[in-house]
Amino acid sequence: MTGERINKNISRAILSLVILTALITINAGAADNSSSSKVIYAFWPYWTDFQSYQPDWDILSYVSYFSIEANPDGTLNTSNIGTNYYNVRDAAHAHNVSVTLTIESFNPDVQDSILAGNQKELAVNILQKIQYYGADGVSIDFEGIRDTNSITHESNSILMGNFMRTLYDTLKNAGPGYHISFAVQHGVNSVYHNATLSQYTDAMFLMGYDYHWLNGPSTGAVSPFNDATQQDVEDSVKMLEKYYPSNKIILGLPFHGYDWPSSSDEPGASTTGAGTAVYMKNATVNAKTYGRIWDSVSHTPWYRYQSSGTWHQVWYDDDESLGLKLDYVNSENLRGTGFWALGYEGNNATIWNVVREKSKAAPATPGFELTVFLAGFFFSFCLRSILKSWRH
To answer: Considering its fold, how many domains does the chain have in total?
Structure first.
């Protein structure tokens, strides 16, 4: 009987230990999928001076230094890389923040030349620069790509897929930990209607801004959200999700707005000239002077003023509007949030408090603590019974 009792108690103890281990594993998995694991990816433009600005390093996951320009032959122009970059890199690494290099081209002719015949050259040069500058990966920012290559007359979507595969193989073979991403404008250019690209990138940075742009015909929200009257951030995410998993999409949000001369003081008025960029740190201060207006359609703030008899409208984002989109990142289970651009929000900006609040870990599984306690109690009870049985 004593042997049977011992065996039963051992079985109970093992069972409770298995249950306890499973519960801890499940809860750990839940924590990994919570908003606490969201990536925070922000661009640091070379003109943001490290000596006069510091972000909230503790909340950042990646900083992408903007920029290195790609040449038609696949070589790279590194004239923007200097002391400022090294200061940013060293500070980032000291805070366990990864640093990537932004490789950009906004020239369709340059893009066509690279995609037509210099893919390998560019991939090799990117690897060399990552290694030389002590970076941790790359962000590809090719904007305004043509649907059809002007040199080969092939689909640039296919050629872009070939390039990203070449880049992925080149970088991952040299260092599996190198991070690879590419930027996609909010209109989701048809070049990126290519699900195979997902295999060759760690993340897509969706530029959820400039829906109304610098030289646009009318005033309006730079980053509209939940707006039934126009394309907005949600529409762009849904378009991208047709081709890529949500857990690879980083929603990029703006730390800037635009000041447009306009035909009237009414929202959506025609612009009467090119706008000028306004940093969020300045827009939020000016809004206190001119009167912040909340647009309930685009869920963004704006203000208006007159100068020399001309109406001006300034549309921007602030803590409230960005907070709504941060909530959306969580509800849509996206990979994370990104920002263009560091420095535009200013030092000690309150937006980082919002980001931190929205990035708090989800609560543990309901009843988790109680269940673990009971399982642990049962395990210890069985263990004491085993020891007592052995004594007898």
So the answer is: 2
